[in-house]
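Practice set, problem 2.
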Amino acid sequence: MTAASIRTRPAVPEGVPNPSRNWLTLLLHDMRYGLISGARTPFPLVTALFLPLFFNVMFNLLQSGETVGGIPNVSATTATIVVFVVTTSGYFNMAIGITVAREKGVLKRVRQTPMPKTLHLMSRIGVTTTMAAASVLLMIAISMAAFGLEIRPLAVPGLLLSFFVCCFTSAALGMGLSRFIPTLEGGVVIGTATLFPLLFLSGVFFPVDLPGPLQTVVDLLPFAPMADLVRTAFDPGATGLAVDLQALAVVTAWGAAGLLFTLKLLRWEPRR
């Protein structure tokens, strides 16, 4: 490379990602922007951080000292709200967020930059996971201090693995769902209509007795295995790393399928 070629290379404006940077730098830069934008948007911030904490405290106060299926209520309740956080932050909010970004032309502009599309999508998953992690850590800290929640030290790696796999899968499925959402209003309706009935049928909030064939189908969908993963990690009677390997395999498969579907069929252009 000559001195002249170095002098004539155009400078990259300050604050704009340089395509010559490595992928990790670009990912962290994009995540930082996403976290700042998310912190300035009240609805996702409230639903991700404070609404789950309110539910957790309320249910623990109402059912203090009780057991659910042989598990202390504080453990069962915290596990349930963790699944709620993961699915609403990932599946629900991601589907709406992608739809809004698409219709406002944000995705179109991202596509025209040097930022790889896959990296931008992973950045969005990282932002969602970070916000969910903040909510879960706050909830666990308060449950330990106020309600005596106990987590076995050996179960912590299993809990972390289960949490991150569930966050990835939930966010990937939310991205895939955005392919079928025409508008923001449609996103709220479709997200609600697909998420909450499945959460109830999957026994996330309370045990549900379903007919055999329907139970088999529900067990193969992602939300029941997510609940099994998280509950196992919070179960004081679990042994070892407290990871349900069968549930982990199902959730991971759904996450991989959701990401592949998104990479192939995600709409980057506004519909209108």
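Problem 2, part (b): a different protein.
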Amino acid sequence: MPLESRLWGKAAGLGEDARGADHTHPLICHLLDTAAVAEVVWDELLTVHQRSTVAEALQVSDDQARTLAAFWAGLHDIGKISVPFQLHRNGPKHGGKLLIQPLSGEPGYAFGAGAVQDRQSHEAAAHWWLVGIFKEIGYPSSRRRPQSQLSHAVAQLLGGHGGRFHPVVYDKDSRCPAARHPGMGAGSWEEQRRLHFDEVRRVVGVRSVPQGRMTPGAAVVLTGLVTLSDWLASIEEEIRTRLRDEAWAGTPDDLNSYWQIARSAAPRLLQRTDLLGTGFARPPEPPESAGKPGLGASMARQVPDLVAEHGPGMVVVTAPPSEERTEAALRAAAVLGHAAGARGLFYALPTGSAADSHMAQVHAFAEQALTGPWRSLLLHSSSRLKPAEAAEQWAHANAAGGVSPEPGEEWAPTANSWLNSHHRALLAALGTGTVDELLQAVMPVKFNVMRLFALSGKVVVVDEAHARGAWGHELMLRFLEWAAALRIPVVLAATAADKSVDAMLAAYRHGAEGDREPVTQPRRSPGWSFVDAQSGGVHLPQQPADAARASTLSIEVVDGTPYGAIQAALAPIVAAGNGRAAAYRGTPAEAIRTFRQLTKDFPGLNVTLIHEQMRNKDRWQRLAACRGAFAPNGGGSGPSVLVTTSMLEHVRGLHFDLVLSGPAPIAALLARAVQSVGDRSRLVVLRADNASELDDAALVRRTDLLLGTGRTVALPEELPLVLDEVYADEFADRLEGPAARELQQLDNQRTVREHKASGTARWLAVPGPRELDGDLGLLSRDHTGMEPELLSSVLGEDVVQVVCLYEHGQPGNRVYLLEDGVPERRLERGPKGRPVPGQLVPYLIPIPKRLVEGVEGDANNAWRGMAALKNVLRLNLKKSEDGRWVYTGSKHRFCMSEHGLMIDELP
């Protein structure tokens, strides 16, 4: 029986022929395209360690591993030889009839009534069928525990190329998969699967039969390679250059010729990704200042020697947040990246605003540390829609700060970049974003293993690693286990050493197959440690003799009305005619009100407002301006104050003489306080102000009791002591009467919440690398009742992206503008009248979902039908009688101004 070239693999987006029939790309051609791309991905994109991980697991040579990887990638879509796929109602047509319809009437291709209704996906069909054929050709197999052997592991891996692995297929089903899934078809359907399998194997040149086992590390690398190769081989405009004519029969000679065409096209496909050629330069010798005391000097002297002796691993830095700590972490990342042969870096922070503020420093680091071409993306909830547009807009907003002489030209991908997609963006050589991007790698979300693959070729830096609460802590421990198993170099930076930091050290050590002995991070501040990924050995090098900049933090707690206290604190600065202050308010609405009052009451005061409910581009521009106005040794003339919210507490590079804040947990107050400058920093806490709804009430109360009317803290040495004191179990024992009972009740509530959060996170997280037991399906397991809302709540408060459109014109001739009175900022329409998601990125406003509960917005069917816009709430604003732009829902009123979005609950 000859190979059937009418079996199609790709059709969407390929256009029509002269007869008006849809073009199709034969399945065998798509399989060979993918195999050819896999060869180039193996050669050009995988690191030396990734390749050796696969070869060692399979017990074959590097060349044999390369060929096997290409062969397996070429089999990924063999499940498309099935009735439901080939005869799908949305398949290629001519004159309204399916092109493949005549085939179903030919001898051997008959099928039963239930075949078309079989809901098995083509990915699952590949998994089910390949288990048996791999067993036939001699791959190791097991009847009782198929997941433990290579025949099942490779089949399950290939069945997961759509983003999710499928459950184990046991021996009784793999012997005759069509019995359970009639859609797979028998007769000629089965013969064609075998012919396609044999031809891919012959053309690619596979001669070896591996006898190894699929380790977790090899599974991650191969999954990434197969999925990435499929994505690249599916680029529609490239497929159109390789379409075969109707006379093409798919004979062995035809396939041999096509294989050469596919191989010649593969390098060009990979070049489209902006992924090739990036590496780490050899780090320079430690500067002369390395002989001086301090964190940076200590690490510069010792990290290179530790890495040279033990190989890459994890560096943990505990010190107050500062630019010095960031620089020390990045220098360590450069040493680890060069030693590991890494292809790039991902810098993770607790919030999107912190990521925005760090991008300039990370970019400056990359110019010195990375070699070859590299592309930088901004990755957090407000940028994930179109990461390239976000990076480009960020570059333009920061152009005045000298980020790039040609903003967006050299390092930010263009809007039509292949990387400009949610699932692909983490592959970019340089990423600055939120820790959520890491944590989703160990949650059962679609393409979670692609995240692990993307990170397995990079260095990961996690700044403020402890700042995610009980949910995030448990997930971070699981991520660090995987990071160590995949030999991902990691740098963790935390404010102070505590039990949570010790647990992170232990998790990485466990993932590196170290023992479970307790590990303790040096409690002295600043301090650091190193765990090598090869053995899990912990190394506590000579610690810094002193901090580079010691200071004294003066904390004053004041009563009275919050705004009155702010006025009183700012009055001396205004009277002196110079000085810089930051005022942290509990909500965006409070920040806006404070901004307006200060502008009115202090005409000579320069007042700047930044909060999270501003449009992306406005927030980026104001942050860029603040880096100049509130620079350590610069800034404008005259007194200045920045009015903001907790969104800026992890931002670096802003320095103040005075910091004002409402009640908050001690860790948050200290994060804000270290932004003040000089030997004597000042923090004023407004006791009567409202605490944030997101702050833990018990920690806020403990902090208030600890501080009393005020306190002086020597930084950095007393910082760990203060944190230990406020978290101490015996804290409540020093209280009496109602105060003791109140705190005990709040502590009990906090304990219950933390235990619930930790337990749910452990239940939700994917198994660690040692717990898989060969079953990749556990990485995609669905829990009963697990909804997207649960996943998002684990990552922090659920956020909705809002875009406000200004309504202009008369009914019937109405247009919507992205900016009031700017006609060229119309809402653009793409094919089929759909909006263009990329144009919205600068105008998105992140809003907590709880504030827009029940708001349906004004999206039409075309908008709601786009996956990229499903979490974007569209509000068509109308001009009210008082001249303001508003949207009024059933329960809320939204008002948009130059100060951002105000949301009021209706009575």
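Answer key, part (b): The longest helix spans residues 737-764. Residues 740 and 871 are 44 Å apart (CA to CA).
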